[in-house]
Amino acid sequence: MTEIRQRRVSLSLLLSLLLTGLLTGCGSIMSSAGAGPIEEDPGERTFGQQMTDESIETKAKVNINAADEGYDDAHLSIVSFNGFVLLAGQVPSEALKALATDVVRKIEGVRRIYNELEVGPTTSMGTRSHDTWITTQVKSKLLASSDTPGIRVKVVTENSVVYLMGLMTEEEADRVSLEAAEVGSAERVVQLFELIPAPAI
Description:
Histidine-containing Protein, Chain: A, three-stranded mixed sheet, 5 helices
């Protein structure tokens, strides 16, 4: 058998294997779909929404910094969750705090803005490291608890204030907040949840 013919045979085998795998995968999907309707979890963001949130965060950071040179002396933490945007950190003036809201409001996909910016000097690296530690402690506590849907909670800490974001029922939101408040280093816990209906019994 010539080298060219061997290559053709190998290519044919490879294509056959790929087609077999694709057909098997399609069959598995159809089997799953045939078992009943596929329902979305109201407590989870879709993949598309996650991409939108990342885009909102990027645009917000770029556009805010481009809006005024005064932001060169600011420290900003910008987080978007399902179109709910948190602005945290420190800015030099009330005018810059208000401007940040105006800039973010113009971004497509933004549904609500929580402007928690403080007017004053920026926090030190030591404070920011402590904030990271608090976030880790809160997240670990929520994940370890069987009473809270910790995996669905976004935790952001700024200057020892803990902000909680996510899609929660009212009962879930209260349980999560109580758990987070038990972390001693957290000075305050702020709920920024988007409330969803409790599942039907």
